[in-house]
Amino acid sequence: MLKELRIKNLTIIDNLFIEFEKGFNVLTGETGAGKSIIVDAIGLLMGDKAPPDMLKTGEKEGMVEAYFDDTVNPILERLSISCEDGILLRRNISLQGKSRAFINDTSVSINTLSNVCRSLIAIHGQHEHQSLLRKESHLPFLDSLGGLEEELKSFKSQYEHTMSLKKSLSELRGKIQDKEQQAEFLRFQINEIDSSNLIHGEKESLEEELAILLNQARLRELTETAYGLLYGVEGSCVEKLSLAIAKIKEISNIDRTAIELLQMLEAAYPLISDSALSLRKLRERYEAEPLRIEQINERLESIKRLEKKYKGTVEDIVAYRKSAEQELKKLESLDEETETLERDVGVNEERLAKIALELSDKRLEASRQLETRIADELGQVGFSYVDFRVSLNKKEILTENGFDEVEFLFSANPGESPKPLTKIASGGELSRIMLALKCVEIGGKGIKTDYASGLFPKTLIFDEVDAGIGGITAQNVGARLKAISSDYQVLCITHLPQIAAMAKNHLTVEKKISKDAVQVILRQLQGEMRQQEIARMLSGKVTESSLKHARELLSI
Questions:
Q1: Are strands 24-28 and 489-493 parallel, antiparallel or unpaired?
Q2: Which of 9-23, 325-339, 342-356, 478-492 comes out lowest in average pLDDT?
Q3: What residues form DSSP beta bridges with 491?
Q4: S-S: 409 plus which of 72, 77, 188, 418, CB 3.0-4.6 Å?
Q5: Taken in order 286, 288, 292, 297, is the CA torsion positive or negative?
Q6: Alpha-carbon span 269 to 156, nearest angstrom
Q7: How far is the C-alpha of 314 from the C-alpha of 305, rounded, in Å?
Q8: Are 213 and 296 in contact (CB under 8 A)?
């Protein structure tokens, strides 16, 4: 239950502290006094956006804080946040548009703060009944009040799966239309690459060979010169090395320290001889081969053409060939894949239609129960005669909500058949119908939160849902709200004295304007002060007549 609410530096509020009680609480006051700010402040705890202009002029930070005496909360248990002393929710907003959220002084995300607050409070706004004027809102009302959320969730899951399969099938069929053209093109590319017989490193090897062929004359000249210096002419390296070895051998016969040097030169002799032999063979290689040059140029030109066409190296082209082959296999298996997917779509469409029909049957059952319960509730909020019906029409085309199209029909006059609620209900009637729907929701299964915790809010806030009614009707609405407050804490913001008079805890909001500032004051009313506030609400000013009427209302 909500025990305390503190608001600081929001719009025209400096620092406001409110204490609430168990049962039926009302907030009254002149229009513009600041009652809506209180609901907006609670909305911040429920995750509403906090624009910078919500701050009081001249302030850099604002705050709203709510204390609940609840000591059990599944969300907080999962977060390991203790609530044995109650739950304190706080949200700070800054001029820069940033927000910080806390639960029992533990920093949390705005989403977590919102989930916890929504498990504790439900707000029914002053304009919520306008949603009844939209025919498309009637089906969600029926599903919610009929407790069909799980069935609808199951249907939508199957619907999304089926639509996904149908989308995939459509894409496959699109591919099949130009499959042959794509496949033929891929086959051509694969054959072209295969027939080119590309080899890794071939291009570099050919370019090296071509460079040799184009420089044969120079290479032959260089090898002949080198060969002559090593072996082939008088005074060559081999000849001079032989003379040097003979001299050092003679030295070693006398000086044994020269043996090592002799051995080194003797080891070098066969290497130089072998090098000369290799030079001779290399010289023989450099023979003019014009035909080979032409072949290499043609091959290199072919490779370069493929590289330009496929925008890559030889390695890239070979890799592309592999991917093209895989793509071709996929295209060739499209027909089989399509047949399989068509069967899957058919099976899932049958399953979807079955679930949709089961949902329709449950909606029909829920609609009959809803008609009876709404009629009972409307009788308790001042309708002497009411005919409320739920019209279900089946559409041929299955949508994300099933086959059903739902519309609420209504008549408040004997002899008149029910007509679409969106066309005939007045503002006051809509307010009471919305209240009746909420009473059915509360009385039937509690108000569901956005998470599956099984915890229903125990604090219900009604923000001027009594708009457009008065007299005995207002008194009946007040009696219904009071009845609800036996099981829930009810906070009602109202302009109607008939409703305010039935509250257990009466709070009034006043706005005092001075030369330099605006001040919002909240008072808890009892005794004579409460009589005067009820009297003001009755006639706009306090008179003997209005005071007498106020005392009569308070005595009911």
A1: parallel
A2: 325-339
A3: 25, 461
A4: 418
A5: positive
A6: 92
A7: 11
A8: yes
